[in-house]
Write a structure and sequence with these properties.
The protein has one domain. Helices cover 72% and strands 0% of the residues. By secondary structure, the chain is mainly α.
Length: 200
């Protein structure tokens, strides 16, 4: 059996840092998040060019359910940021073992993405008239989905690159979904920017 190659310095080469080996679920959620993110951008463009009119009854019960769902997704996003930050040593682990942190990050993250997909569907079918807040709401949601999609693609096909990039993509996605939740209530009640201008 051939011996491992030793560099000229006489020291073994440093191992390449990479993330865990992905599974079929990674591919599935990559397709889910990529599709949702791209479709959200298409809907925003169609609305801007007045090709479609997404106006629905903002007082519908589903609108309130959508807001609750968005808040839940935001809380999951904060949990995701904590578990990954703790696993990377950026925040205290609070006594939680690494295996618990990573499994929680993986499985709760998948649950959060499914819920976010349901909320996104509600956004497409139950929403008030188009507004500037609505445009921001959609932009943050679509970019959050796309950030997760890119993260999963890197984990699957470029694991060495994902080691450094995936945490930042995850942080952005968490921030985006928190902002979606904040804007969700404002979109239901009216345009936040217009309210500020009226107060002035």
């Amino acid at each position: 059996m051939a011996s491992p190659t030793i560099p000229a310095s006489g020291r073994p080469a440093a191992p390449v840092k990479r993330t865990r080996k992905t599974d079929a679920w990674t591919t599935l959620f990559f397709a889910l998040t990529g599709g949702l993110g791209a479709w959200s951008l298409v809907l925003i463009a169609l609305t801007v060019f007045r090709i479609i009119d997404p106006t629905r009854d903002p007082d519908d019960d589903l609108a309130a359910l959508k807001s609750v769902g968005a808040i839940t997704v935001a809380l999951i996003a904060v949990e995701q940021a904590f578990t990954m930050g703790a696993a990377m040593g950026k925040v205290p682990k609070l006594g939680l073992p690494m295996r618990t942190l990573m499994r929680t990050h993986r499985y709760v993250g998948r649950l959060g993405l499914v819920l976010a997909a349901v909320v996104a569907f509600f956004c497409w079918t139950v929403s008030p008239a188009p507004s500037r807040d609505g445009a921001l709401h959609g932009a943050f949601a679509s970019s959050g989905f796309l950030a997760i999609s890119i993260k999963l693609a890197l984990l699957k096909w470029r694991p060495a690159l994902a080691y450094g990039a995936a945490p930042w993509l995850g942080v952005y996605a968490a921030l985006a979904f928190v902002l979606v939740a904040v804007l969700s209530a404002d979109v239901l009640d009216g345009d936040l920017f217009e309210d500020v201008l009226d107060d002035d």
